[in-house]
Design brief:
Elements: E1 4-7, E2 16-19, H1 27-32, E3 36-40, H2 48-55, E4 60-63, H3 71-77, E5 83-86, H4 96-101, E6 105-107, H5 114-129, H6 132-141, E7 162-165, H7 169-178, E8 185-188, E9 202-203, H8 206-212, E10 215-218, H9 232-237, E11 242-246, H10 254-262, E12 266-271, H11 282-285, E13 290-292, H12 301-319
Parallel strand pairs: 2-3, 2-4, 4-5, 5-6, 7-8, 7-10, 8-9, 10-11, 11-12, 12-13
Antiparallel strand pairs: 1-3
Helix pairs in contact: 2-3, 5-7
Length: about 350
C-alpha cells in the first residue's frame, strides 16, 4: 500500500501540490505552510495508476527522474497545473513539448548538486583506475592472495590526459579537480566556454577528444542529440587501455561499453546512472572491471537537502504568481556533437 500523507495549508482553498517521493527533512513542511501538500512518503516511485490519480487537480507537481511527465500525466493533472518542479538537474523524464502546449512551466535543480557529483566522478575514476572494487571483492571472497610486484596493477592518473564530454557545471567541477593530479584536460561541448570558465581545458572536436583521452568522463546531459552518442564506434576511438566514467544515463551505450570491456579495449569503466534504472545491463554486471554504483552522484545529506529546498522554492515562486527560480529552458535542437 502506498503511503501518502497530506498536509493542509493555512489558507482557504489552498493550492494543491503533489510530491511524488519522500524528500529531505523539513522540505515538505515548508511547502505545507503555503498549500495543501500531498506526499508519496516512500523511497520507491509511485505506481503509475496511483500517480495519475493523485495528480488530478494539482497546481504543481514535484517529480523525480523516475516519473514520466508526459501528455497522459499532464492531462490527468488537468488545467489547474502550472508547474512541474523536477527534483533533479536533468529533465529527460519530461515531455517539454507537451508541457509547453499546455502552458506548464518546468523547473529543475541545477548548481546545488555540482560539487557532490564531481566528487563522485572522481571517486569512481579512482576506483576504476586502481581496481578498488576488484580488490575489495577479492578480500571479501576469502580466496587466497599474496602481494606480488605484478599483482592487480592499475593505471596511474598523474599527468594522464583527461577528456570531458559535456562541460557544464559538473564537467567544469571535474576539470578543476584534475589540477591536483597534474592532468592535462580537454573537453567537447555544444559551444565553447568563456576562457574564465574553461579551468585550463582545451576545446577539441569530439573525434580528437576521444582519440587523445586516456581517461574520459561523460557528463553531457541526455537528450535526443546525445542518446547513445558514445556508441561502439566512438568507444573504439578511445586509446587502448583507457578508462571511462559515465555520470549521465543513456549517453553511453551500456551494451557497447560492456563489449569494449570484454574485448580488453578499455582498461576499466565506472557508471553512476543507468539508462533503464533500477535495472542494470546484465553484460555490465558481468564485467569485473566495471565499477557500478546506484545513482549516488548527488547522494549527500547537504546536497539532497538543497535540491529539495530548491524544488520547493520553485513551487512557492509560482504559487506567489512569479516565475520559477530555476526554470528549465531546453537547449536548441541540434545534430549530435561532432
Amino acid at each position: 500500500m502506498t503511503d501518502i500523507r497530506t498536509s493542509a495549508g493555512t489558507r482557504t482553498a489552498a493550492p494543491r501540490v503533489l510530491v511524488t517521493r519522500r524528500l529531505a527533512p523539513g522540505v515538505v513542511e515548508r511547502l505545507a505552510a503555503a498549500c495543501e501538500a500531498t506526499v508519496h512518503d516512500a523511497e520507491q516511485p509511485m505506481p503509475r495508476p496511483e500517480l495519475l490519480a493523485a495528480a488530478a487537480g494539482r497546481t504543481a507537481l514535484i517529480t523525480t527522474l523516475d516519473d514520466a511527465v508526459d501528455a497522459e500525466l499532464l492531462d490527468a493533472a488537468g488545467p489547474a497545473l502550472r508547474l512541474v518542479a523536477n527534483h533533479a538537474v536533468g529533465t529527460h523524464n519530461i515531455d517539454h513539448a507537451a508541457c509547453a502546449a499546455r502552458g506548464v512551466a518546468v523547473s529543475h535543480t541545477p548548481g546545488v548538486l555540482t560539487e557532490a557529483t564531481a566528487d563522485m566522478a572522481w571517486a569512481l575514476l579512482l576506483a576504476a583506475a586502481r581496481r578498488v572494487g576488484e580488490g575489495e571483492r577479492l578480500l571479501r571472497s576469502g580466496r587466497p592472495w599474496a602481494w606480488a610486484p605484478t599483482f592487480m596493477l592499475g593505471m596511474e592518473l598523474g599527468g594522464t590526459p583527461l577528456g570531458i564530454l559535456g562541460m557544464g557545471r559538473i564537467g567544469r567541477a571535474v576539470a578543476r579537480r584534475a589540477a591536483a593530479f597534474g592532468m592535462p584536460v580537454a573537453y567537447h561541448n555544444r559551444r565553447r566556454l568563456p576562457a574564465d570558465q574553461e579551468a585550463g581545458a582545451e576545446l577539441l572536436p569530439l573525434d580528437e577528444l576521444l582519440a587523445t583521452s586516456r581517461v574520459l568522463v561523460v557528463t553531457a546531459p541526455l537528450n535526443d542529440a546525445t542518446r547513445h552518442l558514445v556508441d561502439a564506434r566512438r568507444l573504439a576511438q578511445l586509446p587502448s587501455g583507457a578508462v571511462l566514467v559515465s555520470m549521465t544515463a543513456g549517453v553511453v551505450d551500456e551494451a557497447a561499453l560492456a563489449g569494449a570491456l570484454d574485448s580488453g579495449h578499455l582498461f576499466a569503466a565506472a557508471v553512476d546512472n543507468f539508462e533503464h534504472e533500477p535495472a542494470v545491463h546484465p553484460a555490465l554486471l558481468a564485467q569485473e572491471r566495471a565499477v557500478l554504483v546506484p545513482h549516488l552522484g548527488s547522494a549527500t545529506v547537504r546536497t539532497r537537502q538543497a535540491m529539495g529546498d530548491l524544488a520547493v522554492d520553485n513551487v512557492l515562486a509560482v504559487l506567489a504568481g512569479g516565475e520559477p527560480v530555476t526554470r528549465f529552458s531546453p537547449p536548441p535542437t541540434s545534430a549530435p556533437p561532432s
